[in-house]
Amino acid sequence: MDIIEQIVSGDVRTIARILRDIDDEIPSARDILRRLYRYTGKAYVVGFTGSPGVGKSALVDQIAINYRKAGKTIGILAVDPTSPFTGGAILGDRIRMQRHFLDPGVFIRSLATRGHFGGLSKSTSDMVNVLDAAGKDVILVETVGVGQDEVEIANSAHTTVLVTIPGMGDDVQAIKAGIMEIGNIFVVNKADREGSRQTVRELMNLIELGARRRNGGNWEPQIVETEATKGRGIEDLYGAIEKHRAYLLSTQSEWREVAEKRAGIQLISVLRDQAFKTILKRIEECGDSMDEMVRKIVDKESDPYTIVQQIIAKALK
Length: 317
What we know:
With 317 residues, the protein is of the alpha/beta class. It has helices at 3-8, 12-23, 27-36, 56-69, 92-96, 124-133, 169-177, 196-213, 234-250, 252-285, 290-298, 304-315, and strands at residues 44-49, 74-80, 106-112, 138-142, 159-164, 185-188, 222-225.
């Protein structure tokens, strides 16, 4: 059976192998992604973002249970910090989601950021496409947890869930700084803690302020209180996600807008990656040395801006 047929049929070993090749940037993976793309566009992607320690993994774990009860197949991509020793993912999320390991309807993959900013790995979108083509109904993406830099998930998911907890003033400050605009659903997790209602009120005020500034779109962001480790509020969160999904499907213009945004961010990502590799290859072909360029910058014989212009000029010849 052809590798594309194996992936589309849901063969777990083949899926795991291509995801590994994508993460390791094996050249042959690019051709497989190209051939797989025609099978994508059916999965619903839900992104979970927020600062470290707010309980994103526990929420993903619980939401996966609800979708499995509804008969949906699940793909989970958990973006972990990069190990400073191996360069791989620190597999905390796999440890926390052990209950799903024996469930053939759930596929879990941890991946490292490897220095990529925005809360996601460079290969996240490609992996989403593989799981989509493999027939997963819902794909849950958990970002690494770096605070207000995690806006990239809004361009990769249909529904973005922003998670916070009571007593983290920095979280609310981050929301004020711009994350507020990416959340479709806001979760106050660990709601048994003191200050939960205050956090909810602050979010309500921010949502109201955002509604006054928002141009177009009638979705009113939802606020859900949860205690993920106890399962409290999970049904409400599941309901809010499905409500947002129904809203997008009922307003084709917004569904189209989300689809175009997702396609656009992936196009830019692939273009950036391929352009960078092409330029590096061109530098090698011209006999230039990155070390020598760095030396010139350090010794003030040149500057980064001039050198980049020279590199691009050579690459375009």
